[in-house]
Amino acid sequence: MVVRAGREFLAIPGPTTMPDEVLQAMHRPALDIYSNEMVQLTDGLLGDLKRLFRTIGQTYIYIANGHGAWEATLSNTLSRGDKILVLESGRFAIGWGEAAAAMGATVEVLKGDIRRAVRPAEVEARLRQDTQGEIKAVLVVQVDTASGVVNDIPAIGRAIKAAGHDALFMVDTVASLGCMPFEMDAWGVDVAMSGSQKGLMTPPGLAFVAANDRARERHRHAGLRTPYWDWTAREGLEHYHKYAGTAPVHLLFALRKALDLLFAEGLEASFTRHRLLARAVRSAVEAWAQGDVLEFNILNAAERSDTVSTVRVSTGYDPVALQAYCKGKCGVVLGTGIGDLSGKAFRIAHMGHVNAPMILGTLGVVEMALRALRIPHGEGGTAAAIRSLADAVSA
Ligand SMILES: *Cc1c(COP(=O)(O)O)cnc(C)c1O
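A: This is the predicted complex of the input protein with pyridoxal-5'-phosphate.
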């Protein structure tokens, strides 16, 4: 027996649910890529990306996913042999560092832990030791989508300043932009990158990079530059060069509509919505955790992300069976544990086009699965989520 029908619901951290308006925005013919309309579409989007990243720096749009944006940031700022410091807090900054190593950079990982955020004091201490200024860039993620952690980006920015170090500060915002506050200029970030398919409610395939003047100055001497990723080539007046070739017209239509929806809601309202829905998810997980089988991956409550929650499942109980039940019986797709958490956790995404019924429905289905599979759990998780939302959202 199943109780699924209709649309499968994606509760995975990317690609996420797209609004119908975004899907419909693509259902039209392509544009003449040399037309004024095309140029204006691009200029509007590049400007709106500045609004999102909160920077007066330059923005770039690539036909790529997040991995592509990683290469864009690295190839434009580094030379072969340059040393970079990767701040570990899960899987994704490590992956960014692996790309850098493959491209010829020398990568040092500041050891972290999958269960906590980066400690800014440790960053400052390491940079103070680097009296020769060997470290050219510091790489960190705002939200690690594997561990569910949110790093304190402004505090890390202050730590770099306090150390008096001039390494470029580069931040991955793939799982946070548009959903949680990010202040590129105010927080001292030199390069930020993101992707279209998570908080930004757009199909996979667009990658975004923002760079300030300091980063663009380094770029002038970067030895890893290649034609496709190159910032200089994309900064010219010729529209065709802004994409190093044909523009991804339909993805741009989708992005335009998604950003229109986001700005109509208001960025602050979007941040609040994400915070409240995340709190509801955490209320449910807290209740379930009373059964001593489920627990938050991130130990410190203040370090849990408002966009994705990673829930550990004790040995002897199978998160894969839980996911299979949710998907097969109810049409809700949960995220799997990845990296060190493979087979030991599941993830609930709450980013982008999400609302109360989607989140309460997802939590209800997880609770249903826990019960059907006889996985011990505290009672009343979904009820706790409802209480959390009702208390926060007044009549
Ligand atoms: C998803 C994700 C990426 C990778 O993005 P892809 O589009 O899958 O290449 C990078 N960083 C973070 C934090 C992510 O969540």
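The CA atoms of residues 11 and 334 lie 5 Å apart. The chain has two domains: 9-16+266-392, 31-263.
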